[in-house]
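Hi team,

As requested, here is the filled-out complex form for the nicotinamide-adenine-dinucleotide run. I kept the field names the same as last time so the parser does not choke. Let me know if anything looks off before we queue the next batch.

— J.
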Amino acid sequence: MAVTGILQLGLGNFGRRHLAAWQRLGLADRLWVAEPDTAKWSEAAPVLAPGRCVRSAAEALAHVSIVDIVTPTEHHLGPCREALEAGKDVFIEKPMMPSAAQAREIAELVERTRRRLQVGYYYRFHPAAQWLKAELAAGRFGGVRYVTGEFLGFKRARTDVGVMHTDGIHFLDLFNWLLGGPPEDVYAVCRDHFRRGLEDFAIALLTYAGGTVGKVEAGYIQPGQWEDKVVAGAMTTKRVTLVGERATAEIDFEAETLIVTDARHEFNGTTWAPVLGHPTPVALEPCDPVEMVCRELTAFIQAVEHRTPTAAGPVDSGLHLAVLMERFYESHARRQPQRLELTEVVPST
Ligand SMILES: NC(=O)c1ccc[n+]([C@@H]2O[C@H](COP(=O)([O-])OP(=O)(O)OC[C@H]3O[C@@H](n4cnc5c(N)ncnc54)[C@H](O)[C@@H]3O)[C@@H](O)[C@H]2O)c1
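And here is what came back:
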């Protein structure tokens, strides 16, 4: 394996999942962890070689070829820039960068340094999403008319970005991936009930080339159905429904279920009536959050070793989404839909 050393930055709530994933992948022997809060080291120290918990990236960068950034979003740019300029390949948690200007800088830096960078959009790797992507490509659903997702539930409000920017963005990315590109227009409705300057309730309405309509709802104030597997004490719903010309798919990522129904409308001489098959569950391998992280890290390492494009790259999963989020907030401020100009999302290099 070409990966000589791995440096994970951040050992907070989600950093623990990354640590568990590196262990599950059998790569803890080449792992370093940088975490300024030394009280958190006790979780990593037992699984790392002595001396491999450090306060800052600078203390370990020379020993590694990969940097895994699991810090809050406002601490993404500096470490990512330093890692790329030092010739490291980078895995970075979502959202890649908080602004389109920063995302463009990183997309261009990846291009210039010829490094690999993958963003942590792990729903792409869930077996239900993989099944849906394959069946869409095989034509089982026909054209996609509507795709909608709910990523919501009573949960502590993150302080780095608003709820669409941290939670809804998972499904914004998933929809781009399933539909083959970003939306043409976005219309946003947000509320900031907690008066923090960040939305705690948000809906995005999206229109894609070919006429597909998308909707993502995110929020901390709506009740969720299941105990959250990542945030202790939270209740959550993470559901996606995709409606095609010939079939619909309903995914519940928390319950790990996928139900497919052959469904279309036919004109019977009087009216358009539904022609429905039986809702059919699709058997799925279990895939908890650590397993999803394992799968995305495995794909990243393969891209690093073979020098191939990553599965969620700096343009499609970084810059495109950063531009989409800026148009989302503009739409909310102006109370009007905003257009994503495709020319603005291509890096200049
Ligand atoms: N994929 C997912 O489902 C998912 C879930 C939760 C969080 N996340 C993402 O993971 C990232 C981290 O979130 P979290 O919930 O773990 O945050 P957190 O606040 O719980 O932990 C972040 C940790 O990073 C440390 N840190 C800050 N700056 C650092 C630096 N320069 N170098 C090293 N460590 C540093 C902090 O001390 C803290 O321990 C965010 O980008 C978030 O969006 C992704």
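Two things worth flagging: The chain has a mean pLDDT of 96. Residues 153 and 224 are 4 Å apart (CA to CA).

Thanks,
J.
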